[in-house]
Design brief:
Oligomer: single chain
Structural class: alpha/beta
Number of helices: 14
Order of helices and strands: HEHHEHEHHEHEHEHHEEHHEEHEEEH
CATH class of the largest domain: Alpha Beta
CATH topology of the largest domain: Aspartate Aminotransferase, domain 2
Bound molecules: ligand TLP
Strand order of the largest sheet: 2-8-7-6-5-3-4
Distance between the termini: 31 Å
CATH superfamily of the largest domain: Type I PLP-dependent aspartate aminotransferase-like (Major domain)
Helix content: 40-55%
CATH architecture of the largest domain: 3-Layer(aba) Sandwich
Length: 372
């Protein structure tokens, strides 16, 4: 039995797709990785990863960074002047879950646009562009695909193209938080280059659904990545012989994308399997990739009860729970998780009926969201 298999037996971890542990193949690649000093751009394995992702996505260059947060925040800092605004969809990770970094690092403000199901309309984005001398000027448009807090929802290619066209007309740069761009590609049935086309920069995480232990790659033009390199150093993200991490990421890139369709199918099985559970309600139409957001009467009580029985997931607010599938949750784990979640829901809420449905998956507007 491999170390990963034994881990799966001990727990079912649906808190995030960030929780996967490196596979045996990744560990082997890490042990054998050729390394060098990446601050001098001399780590051959990192250079290979950056080049490979750049080729796959249609960009000139890439930069390996420790996290999706650093990747996004470097992009904002390179694109924007201090004091400008970043137009982004409501719930955008760059604002909601990157602890104020946009204000601290790039010195920019969010201009949130409505995005039902994570998809902003081009008219709302147009209306958000600021040019007046009396206002903070718009510095950047940023989209997120898949959109995490809307439910792991997918922004259609046509919408991305419309917003990109607007950005060109307005002479504004446009960034994609593509932490889960491969999930978007899988859900849309297109290749990763199609998801990334038309953006000035894209941040892709290797450590989410693809299964690498650490790392993201920021993609852009050679000039953009040259400037990004300085910011990575400024933020302390120059990791020296980090080829050991890139080696695992290369394995993730080889194998991960093919596995995502199974993660999406299992998220669907989880969602459908919970329909009708006492005290639980959900919007099936928001289940489009590897996430399921649920509304329940008491998220913390349910998460704690299931957690005691080895099924872990996050309570995102008083009445919202998120389940995330990944390659270390198989069909059997999904079945077991469903059994435990049903039993605990029955114990807590038998006779209560479905939870009151909230407007959006992530308890929007209650002001009490917590970190996944
Ligand atoms: N998201 C994490 C939490 O921070 C919420 C998760 O468990 O989903 N963009 C998007 C869309 C993300 O979902 C995340 C991580 C990031 C960026 C940041 O990546 P990291 O955690 O590597 O800084």
């Amino acid at each position: 039995m491999t170390s990963n298999e034994s881990l799966i037996e001990r727990r079912i971890d649906l808190r995030s797709d960030t929780v996967t542990t490196p596979t045996e193949a990744m560990r082997r690649a890490m042990a054998q990785a050729e390394v060098g000093d990446d601050v001098y751009a001399e780590d051959p394995t990192i250079n290979r990863l950056q080049q490979r992702l750049a080729e796959m996505t249609g960009f000139e260059a890439g930069l390996f960074v420790p996290s999706g947060t650093m990747s996004n925040q470097i992009a904002l800092a390179v694109h924007c002047q201090r004091g400008s605004e970043v137009i982004c969809p409501v719930g955008a990770h760059i604002y909601e879950y990157e602890p104020g970094a946009m204000a601290v690092i790039a010195g920019v403000l969010p201009r949130l646009v409505p995005a039902p199901g994570g998809v902003p309309s081009v008219d709302e984005v147009r209306a958000a562009v600021r040019r007046s001398i009396h206002q903070a000027p718009t510095g950047l448009i940023s989209l997120e695909n898949t959109h995490n807090s809307a439910g792991g929802t997918v922004v259609p290619v046509a919408v991305m193209r419309e917003v990109q066209q607007l950005a060109r007309e307005e002479k504004l740069p446009i960034h994609l938080d593509g932490a889960r761009a491969f999930n978007a590609a899988t859900a849309l049935g297109v290749d990763i280059a199609t998801v990334c086309a038309g953006f000035d920069s894209v941040s892709i995480c290797l450590s989410k659904g693809l299964g690498a232990p650490v790392g993201s790659v920021l993609l852009g033009s050679r000039d953009f990545i040259g400037r990004a390199h300085r910011y990575r150093k400024l933020l302390g993200g120059g990791m020296r012989q980090a080829g050991v991490l890139a080696a695992a990421a290369l394995v993730a890139l080889d194998i991960g994308p093919r596995l995502l369709e199974h993660d999406h199918r299992r998220a669907r099985v989880l969602a459908e399997g919970l329909l009708g559970a006492p005290g639980v309600s959900l919007d099936l139409s928001s289940v489009q990739s590897n996430m399921v957001y649920l509304q329940v009467a008491d998220a913390s009580a349910w998460a704690a009860a299931c957690g005691r029985r080895g099924v872990r997931f996050n309570a995102l607010g008083p009445g919202t729970v998120r389940l995330v599938t990944h390659h270390q949750v198989g069909d059997e784990q999904v079945e077991q998780a469903l059994r435990v979640m049903w039993e605990e829901a029955e114990r807590l809420w038998a006779g209560v009926g479905a939870a009151a449905s909230h407007a959006t998956p992530a308890d929007k507007g209650n002001g009490r969201r917590s970190t996944p």
